[in-house]
Design goal:
alpha+beta; 7-stranded antiparallel β-sheet; 30 helices
């Protein structure tokens, strides 16, 4: 019996060497064909995944063998499944037979920052791709005993999607679902199932009401690379996704070759683009036309003969002679109408109808409407095009006028791609190394390297660099020379190197095309007086959301990009929290290690939990769901921005934007209950928002709240014996689902079903002090010292405006263009960087970066952090607490504070006109004075840190009723008015007592003192009072997981601010009190 079906990759799949990048190719790799191995065999038999078979030592079984044993506790009957083939369908290949690249980094547990030289990348097949699945089953073996029944339910597991293939199964890869029509019906009697077999699926969702930013590691520009290098025109054209595919293909054939000058190529494109459109429209208009007519000669003969028409009827018919009709039915209708009452004579006339087919060129209005819609042309131009449809030159002239509107946008995209040619230089380095390896392998193949050279790294072959030779030998140190020369292995190794070079080149090109799209380009200043804010001066955002290629058939023959959060990111976040938690409660003990390894796995042993990728139900994200934020480093001595240190972020935000995540656990046993209980506590932490995902954690990103909304439990153990199910849910599993007993919980019931057992404090270490690494810095490996959350309320004292990110909401262009445009800026809001996509009822907020910068500036003064940190072992107080990035590998550490965004509630706003220059205005003795002979006053503390004194708005500032610009020598801003209220949370962990004292002082200050932030601080803008609210708390880890009291507030100790405010620990205290005095406002 042969079973045929389709295997769907519900998540990306990787099959290959864990230390390599390429997906394993079939044969010698030259055709780049891929499949999922049918049988365990070959040199990698000890580690490979395959459907059936076993390694020679019997330790590695096929996945179906493993599943059969798991279900029935017996070996798969010999000869039952004789062959399995699973080849990727032709429709699921990209045009170059290369796929997605999934990358990951390892975070150092002490620093919570990237570990040098510990990143990885894998070529993964596209999500949603399909395989042709064929299984040969022996009829005779199938007929024995209950094999048919057992095979039915084994295949049903695959059909339900409870099957994984390949590497990184616990990190979101490898989930498959079989689409198959079985030739035999469901068995009437069920086969016995192992009571140890079970499966728990936990579905979790989280929205982006708290923003998330999982950064994509592509597009990092290296300023050292040349600004322009030779490029391929085809790559530039492929990125122009707004141009219809047929037009792109024609352009690629015409101007898709190498280009050396962008200006020349743009000039060519300007000429060829409208001409290509004209040729395409003419081709659409060239169609074969069918015509039916009454030949004039035949009509004349109708008046003669035995059944001649009367002269009167002939006179009626004659006007129809040689007239073209679109169909035979049209001729019939015209003849009968002409004959009138004598329509019964029509057959005599219709017998002479003639038919002919001829080439015609008639304007195709549908093709034009489609083209105009895709390119944004004015449809009304169709009349002019129809008039000259047979004249290519005239048609090109009309279309050239239409193209003028869209060419700037296309050329902006070209400029972005050219700039991105400076990005990801590490790819060039990797390609260079791989090409050198390829050269050495070709020398081996040609017999130009002897065995004595292979054994001695000092004897370098000709045309090979000594460093390359040593590196090659080191990477092949386990390979004997005779094995290296095996013709089959060597040829495949050479093919793999070539494929790898092609893969990284191709993928980098794809990422550049994606990054060059308009929606990934930021707004920058340019034009007259640098006042025009436009994407044409911009570049790709410094950090955009993670993307993967999933299979979505397109005219380009490649996958479509969609945002997602990798399963490895989710797993890493959960493991980090578990490690911190257990090392806090149990210490760095054997018990801690065993539980972590059981839950998350270790080298050579897969973890208990399979984490899926977190994906959106609909991968198409509206432009309104994207927000941007700028991060500009300020010079602490001047208070001015350092433009070279500017970074911008494009992130997803919104309560309607929800990610779905799934956790799968197989074969839970009673001995796993302790480890599983830890997972339950982690899910509860995730519900509370205590497990951050992605990057920029210290700036408010990633602290999402996950809701468990569905639990599905199946077990082979009958309800009365299901001890594991009772421990999990406290109730029996009754429903029958095939061979399984099942239980499904949804909504709030699912969220409350799992309860973790109490965790006791077992460690003897002092939790009153934060853990320290060997290098001396405070570590993130566990919790200690002071941890908790500050709930902070902010009140605006003088008009405050942190400028919105992206383009200005209002732009006025004066009659005289030499004056430059005038911009009107709204306050920062959680909204799109594009003005046209902003919601009128936008949510104003203080950006987390601005709040963090304001508090860090004060903390640096209060801790006298005047000296720069030379290395990670000698951090100044501010760098130690807020985070630091130095030079060299492993010279970065994440801060121990997490600042959120601060949204306003019903804020009142007004427009203000702020003239410049304004340095002649001075606030002296409680009033503003203008003195043109004096420069702007600068208040500095210790000659290192500038602060802006509090003052009412200067007289030169004018309040406006609306955006009403009258001069370019002023700035126009809308500000939050005094009385505006905002809320923000500040998480902190592993603080020493003095650090917390300084932090609390820098946040709450003292009576009569206030903060300043935003623009126009010199002129009185930006005064802000912060208040620490009663719901702030310190965390008591000894009782947090004890199971006592209210679960949502367990372990929370109130903060008595009066006991913590201690001016004695504040450096430069008198100067700070004077500079922050807000009583005058």
């Amino acid at each position: 019996m042969i079973l045929k079906g389709k295997l769907i990759a519900e998540s990306p799949i990787y099959r290959g060497n864990a230390r390599k990048t390429l997906f394993t190719r079939d044969g010698d790799g030259t055709q780049r064909l891929v499949s999922l191995a049918g049988e365990v065999t070959g040199t990698a038999e000890a580690l490979m995944d395959a459907f059936i078979g076993a390694s020679r030592n019997g330790k590695n079984l096929g996945l179906l063998d493993q599943l059969w044993f798991r279900l029935y506790r017996s070996a798969l009957p010999e000869g039952l499944i004789t062959e399995v083939k699973c080849s990727l369908q032709e429709t699921s290949y990209s045009k170059d037979h290369l796929f997605d690249i999934r990358m990951g980094i390892k975070l150092n547990p002490e620093r919570w920052a990237a570990e040098a030289n510990a990143n990885y990348k894998m070529e993964t097949l596209f999500r949603n791709s399909a395989f042709d699945f064929t299984m040969k089953v022996s009829d005779s073996v199938l007929a024995r005993d209950i094999n048919e029944s057992r095979l039915y339910f084994l295949l049903e597991e695959l059909m339900k999607g409870r099957f994984w293939f390949g590497a990184a199964k616990s990190k979101g890869l490898g989930r498959c679902r079989l689409d198959l029509e079985l030739p035999f019906s469901a068995p009437k009697s069920l086969p016995p199932v192992s009571p140890k077999a079970n499966h728990l699926m936990i579905s979790v969702s989280f929205n982006l009401e708290n923003p998330v930013l999982v950064g994509w590691p592509w597009g990092k520009i290296d300023p050292e690379k040349p600004a322009f290098t030779a490029m391929d025109g085809r790559q530039l054209i492929e990125a122009m996704r707004g141009i219809p595919a047929p037009i792109r293909k024609r352009l690629e054939a015409t101007i898709g070759g190498p280009i050396l000058s962008s200006a020349n190529w743009k000039e060519k494109f300007t000429r060829f683009f409208p001409r290509t459109l004209a040729i395409w429209l003419m081709a659409q208009s060239n169609k074969d036309e069918d015509a039916w007519f009454l030949p004039a000669a035949a009509v004349e003969k109708l008046g003669a003969g035995k059944h001649a028409l009367s002269p009167k009827l002939l006179a009626r018919i004659t006007p129809l002679a040689d007239r073209q009709f679109p169909s035979k039915e049209a001729v019939d209708a015209a003849v009968k109408e002409a004959l009138g009452a004598k329509a019964n004579m029509a057959k005599r006339v219709l017998d002479v109808v003639a038919h002919e087919r001829k080439k015609g060129q008639r304007f195709d209005p549908e093709a034009w409407v489609q083209l105009a819609a895709e390119l944004g042309f004015d449809r009304a131009a169709g009349d002019r095009l129809e008039a000259c449809i047979q004249d290519e030159a005239a048609l090109t002239s009309v279309l050239s006028e239409a193209c003028k509107k869209i060419l700037p946008g296309l050329f902006q995209q070209v400029d972005q791609q050219i700039r991105l040619a400076q990005s990801d230089s590490w790819i060039d380095e990797e390609i260079a190394v791989r090409e050198e390896h390829l050269h050495i392998k070709n020398l081996l193949k040609e017999g130009k390297i002897e065995e004595w050279q292979w054994l001695n790294p000092d004897y370098t072959p000709e045309s090979v660099r000594p460093s390359t030779w040593r590196e090659f030998l080191e990477s092949h140190q386990r390979v004997q020379f005779r094995h290296m020369l095996n013709p089959r292995n060597l040829s495949k190794s050479i093919a793999n190197d070539r494929n790898l070079i092609a893969l990284v080149k191709s993928y980098r090109d794809r990422t550049r095309q994606e990054l060059s799209q308009s929606f990934n380009t930021d707004f920058r200043a340019g034009g007259v007086f640098n006042r025009e804010i436009s994407k044409k001066y911009g570049k790709p955002y410094d950090t955009i959301f993670m993307r993967m290629l999933s299979w979505g058939p397109s005219a380009q023959g490649q996958g479509m990009w969609e945002i997602y959060i990798p399963g490895s990111t989710v797993k890493g976040a959960f493991r980090k929290r578990a490690s911190q938690l257990l090392k806090t409660l149990w210490g760095d003990s054997t018990k801690t290690t065993l539980i972590l390894n059981r839950l998350f796995g270790e080298q050579g042993s897969r973890g208990l939990v399979y984490f899926s990728d977190a994906c959106l139900p609909d991968p198409r994200v509206s432009g309104r769901s994207w927000c941007s934020m700028d991060g500009v480093k300020m010079d602490p001595a001047t208070g001015c921005p350092i433009e070279e240190a500017k970074a911008d972020y494009l992130f997803a935000f919104g309560k309607d934007l929800s990610f779905n995540l799934q956790l799968d656990i197989q074969d839970l046993s009673a001995k796993d209950m302790e480890a599983f209980s830890i997972l339950v506590h982690l899910l509860d932490d995730f519900r509370k928002g205590d497990i951050p995902l992605g990057g920029e954690k210290t700036c408010g990103f990633g602290w999402v709240k996950g809701v468990t909304n569905n639990i599905h439990w199946i077990t082979g153990e009958p309800p009365e014996q299901d001890s594991v199910g009772r421990k999990l849910f406290g109730k029996p599993t009754n429903a029958r689902d095939g061979i399984w007993y099942s239980l499904t919980l949804q909504g709030e019931t699912a969220g409350e079903a799992l309860q973790g057992t109490a965790l006791a404090l077992e460690t003897k270490q002092d939790l009153g002090s934060p853990p320290r690494a060997k290098q001396g810095f405070i570590s993130h490996s566990a919790f200690g010292g002071y941890c908790g959350v500050l709930a902070i309320a902010g009140e605006v004292l003088t008009p405050l405006c942190v400028k919105e990110s992206g383009e200005p909401s209002f732009v006025h262009v004066p009659d005289d263009p030499s004056m430059g445009c005038i911009n009107g800026w709204e306050p920062f809001a959680m909204t799109s960087p594009e003005a046209d996509l902003r919601d009128p009822s936008r949510l104003y907020a203080l950006p987390s970066k601005s709040i963090k910068g304001m508090i860090r500036h004060l903390y640096a003064i209060a801790s006298d952090s005047c000296k720069a940190s030379p290395d990670i072992s000698r951090l100044n107080p501010a760098d130690s607490l807020f985070g630091w990035v130095g030079n060299g590998p492993n010279q970065a550490i994440m801060g121990r504070l997490g600042f959120g965004f601060a949204p306003f509630e019903n804020a009142q706003t007004a427009w203000f006109k702020v003239p410049y220059p304004y340095g002649m205005w001075h606030y002296v003795n409680g009033r503003w004075e203008m003195n043109p002979d004096r420069q702007a006053a600068v208040l500095q503390i210790a000659g290192q840190w500038r602060l802006f004194p509090h003052a009412p708005l200067a007289p030169c500032v004018t309040r406006l009723d609306a955006f009403q610009p009258d001069t370019p020598k002023a700035g126009y801003i809308k500000a939050i008015l005094p009385g505006g209220q905002c809320r923000v949370s500040l998480r902190f962990w592993n603080l020493e007592k003095e650090e917390l004292q300084k932090l609390l002082w820098c946040v709450a200050l003292e009576q009569g003192l206030a903060h300043k932030m935003g623009g126009g601080r010199y002129l009185g803008f930006g005064s802000l009072r912060l208040k620490i609210l009663p719901e702030s708390f310190l965390t008591d880890w000894a009782t947090r997981y004890s199971g006592k009291g209210d679960k949502d507030h367990a372990g929370q100790l109130p903060i008595n601010l009066g006991e913590w405010i201690n001016p004695k620990v504040i450096q430069h205290y008198p100067e700070l009190r004077k500079a922050l005095d807000a009583q005058r406002i």
